[in-house]
Amino acid sequence: MDNTLKNLKEAVALSPDNAILRKMLAKELMAEEYWSEAEVELKTILRLTAQDQEAKLWLAQSYWALDKKSVAAVIAEELEDQGCDAPAFTFLLAQLALENKDLPKAKEYYEIAVNANLALKNTTFEAQLKETILESGAALGNATESTEADEQFFADIEKPAITFDHVGGLASVKKEIALKIIHPLKNPQIYEAYGKKIGGGVLLYGPPGCGKTLLARATAGEINASFINVGISDILDMWVGSSEKNLHEIFQKARASKPCVLFFDEVDALGASRSTMQNSSSRFIVNQFLDELDGIRYSNDGLLILAATNSPWYLDSAFRRPGRFDRIVFVQPPDAPAREAIFNLYLEAIPKEAGINITKLVKQTKDYSGADLKAVIDIAIESKLEASLMENKVVPITQKDLLNAIKRHQPSTKEWLSTAKNHVLYANQSGLYDDVMKYLNLKK
Asked: Does some domain include residue 439?
């Protein structure tokens, strides 16, 4: 037996009418989950001090843990009549409401409790609430008409159908993501043997339009995980403290949906370097973000965090510490095999002349992003629309149309690569941008 418990029991035996000692013993018994013994002590305390509201709450919690939920509900009604407003009591009301399938009340009480005391955040309760909602098909707001706020409670959670097979090229990037995220989930026993947690963070950076978001969705698809795509507008709020709350709620939503890939696009807008900030509220957002990534107060096991940025040099260096974004991966413009795959994909479903020379198109589109290649196809299509309308029939796209489109659309990655070159040359002491240096054929 724990020495603290043993000493408290001995003290109570010497002074059986000492309610304070008995409360100390009851609290310790509850902490150790000796619920039946706690029940006995709490009943004795209430015989000694009938109006002890805290002891009544503890007794109700003990009854709940012992699955005597109807008795817990009776005590809860009494406490409610007495005006008890302790956050732990409000959480108990949330549990009772969920038990009775009163989902709006369960959500309301739970949010009040957590806002008053963050330590009451309970991912198990959130998962049960979500499961009950899905089973009943009920909305969290009005019983007959859902509200936008209620729909957002577990909204934006996807189950992507795409996998890495749908992403052309980028073999090295896929390997990095697989090592950090996919293999741990598929082979947990191996990683546990080395003391490695399942989960973590990967930061994807590179020029816009190169498939970072597609990669994130494909990662979720590879492991059949939930996927939450977080935009800046989902977080930032004009009211002080609201942005941090929004960020925390998104992480909690992901924790309740494990395994889950949580994807932050344009993460530099949320995690910019604090040394350059003049607004203290922005620093609070960064601090909250770092706290959520650390997973100290709430477990991130099974939570996979991907983030993308076009400007990694503006991101606060604290995000690159171990346990946060452990891997920083350069998503370069599609290489030749990837461009060939992308051209084949886009040209497959449109009318075209026979014998299109994809190899020649690939040679003409070095540094083109995936979005640039799509734009080339769109320009070629537009060049044929007028002729198709005039002739009142579909006119196929030719090799010449595609080559002309390439001439008209220059790669959008050039500006990014030029900016990146400056950072590679003058701010790469840690070797963070070695992959960019290699892509640009620069020497150390």
From this structure: no
Whether residue 197 sits in one domain with residue 285: yes
pTM (predicted TM-score): 0.62
Pull the structure tokens for residue 219: 């990662």
Task: Give the Cα separation of 196 and 189 in Å (integer).
Answer: 10
Q: How many domains does the chain have?
A: 3
**Tokens representing residue 96 in the block:** 């009772």
Evaluate whether residue 215 is within a structural domain. Answer: yes
Q: Are residues 288 and 379 in the same domain?
A: no
Distances (CA, A) of 278 to 267, 275, 284: 19, 8, 12
Comparing CA positions, the residue from 220, 172, 444, 218 lying closest to residue 330 is 172
> Domain range for residue 267?
157-330
Provide the CA 66 distance to its chain's centre, in angstroms: 34
Q: How far apart are CA 208 and CA 368, in angstroms?
A: 10
- Do 145 and 171 lie in one domain? The reply is no
Strand order in the sheet with 200-205: 157-158, 226-230, 260-264, 303-309, 200-205, 325-330
Residue 437 lies in a domain: no
- The dihedral region occupied by 295, where left means phi > 0, alpha psi between -120 and 50, and beta the remainder, is left
The amino acid sitting at 317 is S
pLDDT in tens, 3-51: 788 888 888 888 888 888 888 888 888 888 899 998 998 889 888 887 8
Phi, psi of 271 (to 5 degrees): -120, 40
In the predicted model, is pLDDT for residue 362 greater than 90?
yes
CB 386 within 8 A of CB 419: no
